[in-house]
Fold 2-isopropylmalate synthase.
Amino acid sequence: MSRFDYRRYPAFPPVPMTSRRWPDRQIRRAPGWCSVDLRDGNQALIEPMTASQKSRMWDLLLKLGFKEIEVGFPSASGHDFAFVRNLIENNRIPEDVTIQVLTQAREELIARTFESLEGVPRAIVHVYNSTSTVQREQVFGLDREGIKAIAENGARLVKDYASRYPDTDWTFEYSPESFTGTELDYAVEVCDAVTSVWEPTPDKKVIINLPATVEMSTPNVYADQIEWFCDHVARRDSIIVSLHTHNDRGCAVAAAELGVMAGADRIEGTLMGNGERTGNMDIITMAMNLYSQGVDPQLQLAGMDEIIETVKACTQLPVHPRHPYAGELVFTAFSGSHQDAIKKCLTKREDESQPWQVAYLPIDPADIGRSYQEVIRINSQSGKGGVAYVMQADHGYDLPRWLQIDFSATVQAYAEDTEGEVGSTEIHSLFEQTYLPETPRWRLHDYQLSRADGVDKLQLTIQDGAQSRQLAGTGNGVVAAFVNALEGFVGKSIVLVEYSEHALSQSADAEAVCYIQLNIDGDRSCGVGRSHDIVQASLLAILGALSRSPGLSTSAAA
Ligand SMILES: CC(=O)SCCNC(=O)CCNC(=O)[C@H](O)C(C)(C)COP(=O)(O)OP(=O)(O)OC[C@H]1O[C@@H](n2cnc3c(N)ncnc32)[C@H](O)[C@@H]1OP(=O)(O)O
Ligand SMILES: CC(C)C(=O)C(=O)O
């Protein structure tokens, strides 16, 4: 039989709650954030961070505005110990920032932890032990009382060692590690035992951190667990309930969000979700989720590219191009209908003080240092809206709709041939080759306009290969006279169907650009003319449209 056998995995039992309040709540305020990049994130790396990588990460975390940062497990290694000493001895901890360190509930480790913190003005000492059924039975070989005793002993030791360093303002934190695999009544019993040792008050709270050490259920079940815990734990007004979720089922952020709705006050997580196995809860995503709902995330995340660069350099892990908010491709639309909708919304958006309402873009990319240039990228899935956006945003051409349709067919054919993305410069060159070729079929030499009896008369010279041709036409206005001259030249009827012009915004010396669509004996053809003179731009556009018309042979012209 195959080992791929779902029957080996029992379903996670629901929490027996008859009524739950959290589904009706909204998060309207950011929780307290604690970065665990330098501890949980670091302990999961193939190569743990070097001292300089840790320093770089520390500096970034300060810059982003974290006020609580777990900086290591100082009793575990000389490196972690030295890093904590470095921060303290070099006065690198700002007054509004508190460092946090982790320790097991063992005396020698707790003693060493306090040694590492000597002289720190304030710190959070975080002690943990596993409480789940699996860990109790299989790892520790202890019953409920035995495991609770480890927690109580750890709490007592932490309190005792803290009293030996009276100059430091201590905060205590306890985690019933593997909380999500722990019976809820038992988790409450253990945490109550810990807080009865610590005796917190509303003015001097302790932190009780409830980890989804392994994510085992849907986020709603985690939220039930948190609400149940908050409702039953003793001394709730003296406890900061903290969450620490992992991403085994891909829902760490959702679980943390629902957990906050269920009553939690504080969140531990990492930047971009680095951490054990599938990672810790990603603080960037959760904070930006708040931001996108109009809630101040209390973190400065405007420089997303710097964050990514630092995280990559410190963890030596890539950031997925589709990572929420941060990935290289998350604000990019390749597909035609998305591009069309984005372009329309952006074009209509005149008043920046109005709420952001742009299809397919949950936030304004500019808020996190991304430019609109990255928003729309072109490949064979793209449509006219995207091509028009690039032509306008990057090159200053405001193509009318009928020309967008005409030109996007050229770009589409090119994208299919090259089987890849078509860059902005390539799109521009395609436009020039198509509508403004360096060696056009016919070149306008010179022209003279005169007016008599209300009729305009145009005389002009056209270069047709090696020959110069003199043409003349009449009409109401220069364009009509030119069209009339060309009708005689090619022997076909020509109707001016569309006309549009504008100053070329990207051109420093104010060139004008003119777009024309002609109907030449039933065939439509588009042309573009560019010149410092608007009349000349119109004539060039008409000649360009005529040159591109497939129905004309040189002999017809002759
Ligand atoms: C979910 C988490 O992320 S928890 C944090 C995990 N992080 C780390 O472990 C990284 C740093 N840790 C280390 O480097 C090592 O574990 C050290 C140096 C701290 C300790 O190493 P060791 O002394 O070899 O102990 P180890 O961690 O293997 O555990 C050994 C013993 O401690 C017990 N123990 C484990 N965790 C705890 C705890 N939280 N509290 C009390 N005892 C514990 C174990 O049951 C085991 O007991 P036994 O020797 O009687 O069987
Ligand atoms: C020590 C605890 C908080 C932890 O890292 C976990 O459970 O993942």
